[in-house]
Amino acid sequence: MGERGQPLPRALGVALRLQRPGLDIQAQFRVPPGRVCALVGRPGAGKTALLMATAGLLPAIGGRVTLGADPLYDAATGLNLPPHVRRLGWVDGQAHLFPHLTVQGNLMYGHRVGGGDRGPRLEEIARWLAIEPLLQHRATQLSAADAFRVALGRALLAHPHALLLDDPLARVPTEARPPLLALLAQLPARQPLPLVLVSPRMDEVIQLADEIVVLHEGRMASAGPAPHILSDVSLSSFLEGEHAGTVLDGVVKRHDVSWLLSEVDVGGQRLTVPAMLYPVGSRVRVKLRARDVALHRHPPSDTSVSNHLRGRVAQIMLAGEHGIYGAVVVELDRAADPSEPTQAPPATLWALLTRKSIQQMGWAPGQPCVVGLKAMAINVFPWR
């Protein structure tokens, strides 16, 4: 048993088939406690329908949903627990607060559903979500950002066994999202539950997801660790299109206040990026667009480009025999760290080059290269 008599968190397993008008959806994934799985893909790929079927809000025609070894839905045996018995928390962009209740009344509803003292305390949740001054406000008086905070608090007070998030920040203005994303990033540590996220915004996925499932027309196009999937340019048509590129894990190493720049360690090599507020030692994720990457034989001596990473060409994929461009996979050199007995595999990144550049420079797998990156072309996101 966990704290205060709570059962220990269990993994959420989903293997479902369902049908929507014009779409046959089949997917399977498993989310351990304290991990975030993001469902991504083009609009209409079946992401929200799959999430709703997991919660029991849409009928499935086959498969299983499990918490640990316990089935919540099993087509083979006819088991189909109703949503309130499945105890899978749900938060979406609509918030769905009770308009006739105050903020405290909405939170108390979740508290009662969750069995009172078995789950987190209302006071703890209200303090963490910074909604204590709003407790006596009516739900109709809240901003979109505050409505999300209250909806999240109510879901957590219901003591869910997993949390399903369907574009929860959809109605929140862009400028109000960063602190809410920070709250969501804290969730796996505060409430070690399986979390499943649907979001059309890749910056949210980059900041929150451990694993990613890519859906295309109802079927799984790919699945795996977030940095690997988000760095696969071959999936760009399902993800970010022209903004596709590479996501790398890094650690903040230095801030240069005089030039308003920061340095991030990526596999033993340093990246210079625009100044950020994350303290030295913070874990971050770095996003590089494939079309912003240049390849050189040697570090250029006369250039405004701040970053030159050493690596070697691992793969080249041309867009047809007479296509305009090609995608070049570069495996970055990794500095040996004697403090780590086992080294992580080297990071890879993608460069999108014209076919002419690839052929004129004679790029081929195995050749050493230098990756050029402008500091201003790099986006950095916090990572828990």
Walk me through this protein's architecture:
This protein is an alpha+beta fold and 384 residues long. The chain is 20% helix and 35% strand. Strands 7-8-9-3-10-11 form a 6-stranded mixed β-sheet, sandwiched between helices. Helix 3 packs parallel to helix 5. The protein is globular, with a radius of gyration of 23 Å. The protein starts with 11 loop residues before the first strand and ends with a strand.
Write the layout of secondary structure elements.
Layout: E1 12-20, E2 23-31, E3 36-40, H1 47-55, E4 62-67, E5 70-74, E6 79-80, H2 83-86, E7 88-92, H3 103-113, H4 122-128, H5 144-157, E8 162-166, H6 177-190, E9 195-198, H7 202-208, E10 211-216, E11 219-225, H8 226-230, E12 245-256, E13 261-266, E14 269-274, E15 283-289, E16 294-296, E17 307-318, E18 325-332, E19 348-354, H9 355-361, E20 368-373, E21 378-382
Helix pairs in contact: 3-5
End-to-end CA span: 26 Å
User: Helix- and strand-based class?
Assistant: alpha+beta
What's the mean pLDDT score?
92
What is the total tally of β strands? 21
SS strand fraction: 35-45%
Which strand order spans the largest sheet, edge to edge or round the barrel?
7-8-9-3-10-11
Q: Main sheet?
A: 6 strands, mixed
Number of helices: 9
Query: H/E element string?
Result: EEEHEEEHEHHHEHEHEEHEEEEEEEEHEE
Low-confidence stretches: 1-5
Dominant shape: globular
Helix fraction, binned, reads 10-25%
What is the rounded Rg?
23 Å
